[in-house]
UniProtKB/TrEMBL annotation, chain A:
<keyword id="KW-0997">Cell inner membrane</keyword>
<keyword id="KW-0547">Nucleotide-binding</keyword>
<protein>
    <submittedName>
        <fullName>ABC transporter ATP-binding protein</fullName>
    </submittedName>
</protein>
<dbReference type="InterPro" id="IPR003593">
    <property type="entry name" value="AAA+_ATPase"/>
</dbReference>
<keyword id="KW-1278">Translocase</keyword>
<keyword id="KW-0472">Membrane</keyword>
<dbReference type="GO" id="GO:0005524">
    <property type="term" value="F:ATP binding"/>
</dbReference>
<dbReference type="InterPro" id="IPR027417">
    <property type="entry name" value="P-loop_NTPase"/>
</dbReference>
<dbReference type="InterPro" id="IPR017871">
    <property type="entry name" value="ABC_transporter-like_CS"/>
</dbReference>
UniProtKB/TrEMBL annotation, chain B:
<dbReference type="Pfam" id="PF00528">
    <property type="entry name" value="BPD_transp_1"/>
</dbReference>
<keyword id="KW-0472">Membrane</keyword>
<protein>
    <submittedName>
        <fullName>Diguanylate cyclase</fullName>
    </submittedName>
</protein>
<feature type="transmembrane region" description="Helical">
    <location>
        <begin position="187"/>
        <end position="208"/>
    </location>
</feature>
<feature type="transmembrane region" description="Helical">
    <location>
        <begin position="12"/>
        <end position="34"/>
    </location>
</feature>
<dbReference type="InterPro" id="IPR000515">
    <property type="entry name" value="MetI-like"/>
</dbReference>
<feature type="transmembrane region" description="Helical">
    <location>
        <begin position="243"/>
        <end position="266"/>
    </location>
</feature>
<dbReference type="GO" id="GO:0055085">
    <property type="term" value="P:transmembrane transport"/>
</dbReference>
<keyword id="KW-0813">Transport</keyword>
Length: 582, 279
């Protein structure tokens, strides 16, 4: 019998001359009923285009299928050719036979309609249900994706739900008509690790319940280990390797697969931490940065006269110190206050309370006017598109009252060379550089003022894995060369393990555990740290089942005058302590 | 020089640039008095003469040469349009940047004032100002400038607010850039594209508003010529002497087309992302 889906020699092109601009070149695979295929590759590898070709959504993105065949076996065993299908036929197939979920749950839902209306829509279209029947079906769909209190949530609009909840709603909609194939295009990339673990667990459970097939697209080869049966690795529009899960992960044949498996930072529970530049136990050296009792609150105004009725406790009493040449990683989920901490140190948000001092490291003559510099997350937004690289690099110098002279130019050229870009880049503009190169430019700009501390706010999160690995390498080299102290803010435990000497885990605006990277990762003490570490996907944890956990981060809005209890700490070794839990 | 060359390399820039250049030439010739006939001279024998080799675009009810009047009229209309748009752009940019930069109370106050101005139809507001100040070239310029300032304020404020929140502005703050540096380098420079497009559109509207004011007798005063005035004079003779309407009408239409094409080209050229593909 024919498999559920059979694709042979698929070719997809874009633009006026699709034959010449092919982004998918001869991809083929079979997918049996109940099987899960993971398509893995970096951005631009053609993995999403391949998936979008299956339900022909690629036509709407300006793509054209130039060759090959896509055949779907329908429920009545008739074979359906998706390439020659007409648009009305495709509309019937989409949703009913092939469901799809996308990367960004926040933008995939209409913000002005209630989620109930939006789920009912797919029941109305494909099953002709109306009125009460549709509402009942929508409630069942939400129950199925384990959304608590489903009947009431139907009345919510998307802005009232968190990212993880919205992705569940998207899954509920995709599964509304029991499709036999679900295409998931990076469904967890925009979500926090613990939420990602919940969604993965949900997908695995639903797959078991319904027996549907799944195509799972991701850039994170570690993530698919728990869910996929087969893996297809794509590079430059071609499937370079495909096979059974274990075979690919344990015995990769193609050099690119090997490279991917190597480049992806595998989380090793503290076994892969850095061995250089460990913190000395003597107290002689002055810290490069000392933060003491940092508090950042944003007033919440309500009522007609806008009187303050409470405050968002974004950062609630954070203290740490950072030695020269040391990396302190601040990890936590979105909304935990890790970025606010960084922004307060840089003076981008006003701190309510607390002190920080950046100590002297260099001789007075060399001492920088601004010892703390920052590299931002999004390399596409942190460079002014209208300025040449020369003007961008000169800005810190001009800003601190310097002049652009021969010396400055020599320095710009030297720093560019140091971060691995040609000197000719000076005359060019940001859009001519890739994401990784832009992040190198941002690093060069941050180093223009000889800082002693560099704050890296999710600085490698937006980059592809192999680019990410090289930027991390560069950061480590620069740290050794210039004796820089890094404050590395990240949600990615595997990356943190590679670069951090010390780790501070932040939850709801407070540090819950801080200490030496190896001990925090190998022997987490606080329950939140444990949960965070348990959620990290790795290829070692193949077929491990995640517990479904629907706990939400507590609200950080507190009444006026609320003060948190002073922290009590348990010590676990010379440099490892965790907050005592209530 | 580089921009001129880039305009020439751009297809719609070439067409738009040629049209605008032609109008400028006609306007200058008109202002220097280098017209085929005296625009004010009334050739009584040749009243309502159809276009021929002597009168290229015919003559009007008083026997004045339409081609000559058109040339001086273009000069008059363009002067009003250029100056009023220049003032509106300057005022709108300053106000819009101020609203976005200072935010809160200033933003609220400025934008409410702009809302009040915007609530009036453009021509009505211009009429009001001209009626109070008395008709004339300079009052037309000031009136049209006031009418279009709120539009520029809005066009600048919106993107400026979003640019202000961009990471490169945060980055500039972390190394201590001054407000004036951030305002000019990071905000204004990124506003060049929307402003250019708005300027070319506003030039077209200003031409129309000037024509409207003159049509109602409050702009350019007879016997001087402007495109709007000529159009207004032609309306009773539409059937007997259609050339009186066709030529000023065409002149307005083609000039607006020219400005829009040039605006599109400038927007592309001033964007560094497009520079590669053009050069």
């Amino acid at each position: 019998m024919m498999p559920l889906l059979s694709i042979t020699d698929l070719r997809v092109g874009f633009g006026r001359n699709p034959e010449a601009n092919e982004v998918v070149r001869g991809v083929g695979f079979d997918l049996a009923e109940g099987e899960t295929l993971a398509i893995v590759g970096e951005s631009g590898s053609g993995k999403s285009v391949t998936a979008l070709s299956i339900n022909r959504l690629v036509d709407y993105g300006g793509g054209r299928i130039t060759g090959g065949s896509i055949k779907l076996r329908r429920a009545d065993n008739s074979v359906f050719d998706l390439l020659t299908a007409t648009e009305p036929q495709l509309t019937k197939i989409r949703g009913a036979e092939i469901g799809m979920i996308f990367q960004e749950p926040m933008t995939s839902l209409n913000p002005v309609l209630t989620i109930g209306t939006q789920i009912e829509e797919s029941f109305r279209l494909h099953r002709g249900l109306t009125g009460r029947q549709a509402t009942a079906a929508a409630k069942d769909a939400l129950d199925r994706v384990r959304i608590p209190d489903a009947a009431r949530r139907l009345e919510y609009t998307p802005n009232q739900l968190s990212g993880g909840m919205l992705q569940r709603v998207m899954i509920a909609m995709a599964l509304a008509c029991n499709p036999r194939l679900l295409i998931a295009d990076e469904p967890t990339t925009a979500l926090d690790v613990t939420v990602q673990a919940q969604i993965m667990a949900l997908l695995a459970e639903l797959k078991r319940e319904t027996g549907m097939s799944m195509i799972f697209i991701t850039h994170d080869i570690g993530l698919v280990a728990g869910i996929a049966d087969k893996i297809m690795v794509m590079q430059g529009g071609e499937a370079v390797e495909q096979g059974e899960l274990n075979q690919i992960l344990d015995h990769p044949q193609h050099p690119y697969t090997q490279h991917l498996l190597h480049a992806v930072p595998h989380f090793a529970s503290g076994r892969a931490t850095r061995s250089d530049g460990r913190r000395e136990q003597d107290k002689g050296t002055e810290p490069a940065l000392k933060v003491d009792g940092l508090v950042v609150r944003f007033p919440v105004k309500s009522g007609f006269f806008g009187r303050a009725s409470g405050a968002v406790h974004a950062v609630d009493g954070v203290d740490f110190d950072l030695m020269p040449g040391e990396t302190l990683a601040i990890v936590g989920e979105s909304g935990s206050g890790k970025s606010t901490t960084a922004r307060a140190i840089l003076g981008l948000v006003r701190s309510t309370r607390g002190t920080f001092s950046a100590g002297a490291r260099k001789a007075a003559a060399e001492q920088s006017a601004l010892p703390v510099q920052m590299v931002f997350q999004n390399p596409y937004a942190s460079l002014n598109p209208r300025l040449s690289i020369a003007s961008i690099l000169a800005e810190p110098v001009i800003a601190t009252g310097g002049r652009v002279n021969a010396q400055t130019r020599t320095k710009m050229a030297a720093l560019l060379k140091r971060v691995g870009l040609p000197e000719s880049s000076l005359e060019r503009y940001p859009h001519e550089f890739s994401g990784g190169q832009r992040q190198r430019l941002c690093i060069a700009r941050a180093l223009m003022l000889n800082p002693s501390v560099v704050v890296l706010d999710e600085a490698v999160s937006a980059l592809d894995v192999s680019v990410q690995a090289r930027v991390l390498e560069l950061l480590v080299e620069l740290q050794r060369e210039f004796g820089l102290a890094y404050l590395f803010i990240s949600h990615d435990m595997a990356v943190v393990e590679r670069i951090a000497h010390r780790i501070a885990v932040i939850y709801a605006g407070q540090i819950v555990e801080i200490g030496d990277a190896t001990s925090v990762l190998s022997e987490p003490k606080h329950s939140y740290t444990k949960k965070l570490i348990a959620a990290v996907p790795t290829i070692d944890r193949r077929r491990e089942h995640f517990e479904l956990d629907t706990r939400q981060v507590p609200s950080l809005v507190r009444p006026l005058g609320f003060e948190p209890e002073p922290a009590r700490w348990d010590e676990f070794g010379p440099d490892h302590r965790a907050r005592v839990e209530a | 020089m580089r921009i001129l060359r880039a305009i020439f390399a751009h297809t719609s820039g070439r067409i738009g640039g040629a049209i605008v250049a032609l109008y400028l030439l006609l306007a200058i010739l008109g202002m220097l008095g280098l017209t085929p006939h005296n625009p004010l001279m009334q050739y009584r024998v040749d009243r309502l003469h159809a276009p021929d080799s002597a009168y290229w675009m015919g003559t009007d009810l008083f026997g004045r040469d339409v081609a000559s009047r058109l040339m001086t009229g273009i000069g008059q209309s363009f002067t009003v349009a250029f100056f009023s748009v220049a003032f509106a752009t300057l005022a709108g940019t300053v106000l819009g940047l101020a609203a976005a930069w200072f935010g809160r109370r200033w933003d609220g106050l400025l934008m409410r004032v702009m809302d009040v101005l915007l609530a009036f139809p453009a021509i009505l507001l211009a009429l009001l100002i001209v009626t109070v100040a008395g008709p004339g070239t300079w009052t037309s310029i000031v009136a049209i400038a006031i009418v279009y300032t709120p539009i520029f304020t809005r066009v600048v404020r919106g993107p400026a607010l979003s640019l202000k929140a961009r990471e490169f502005v945060d980055a500039a703050r972390t190394f201590g850039s001054s407000s004036s540096y951030i305002l000019t380098r990071h905000l204004l420079l990124n506003l060049v594209a929307p402003l250019t497009v708005q300027v070319t559109l506003a030039l077209a509207w200003a031409l129309l508003t000037e024509a409207g004011l003159s049509f109602l007798g409050l702009g350019t005063q007879p016997p001087a010529a402007s495109l709007g005035l000529m159009l207004s004079d032609s309306r009773n003779l539409m059937e007997t002497a259609p050339w009186l309407m066709i030529f000023p009408g065409l002149a307005i239409m083609v000039s607006i087309l020219g400005f829009n094409l040039l605006g599109d080209a400038l927007r592309d050229i001033l964007d560094p992302k497009m520079r590669r593909s053009i050069a």
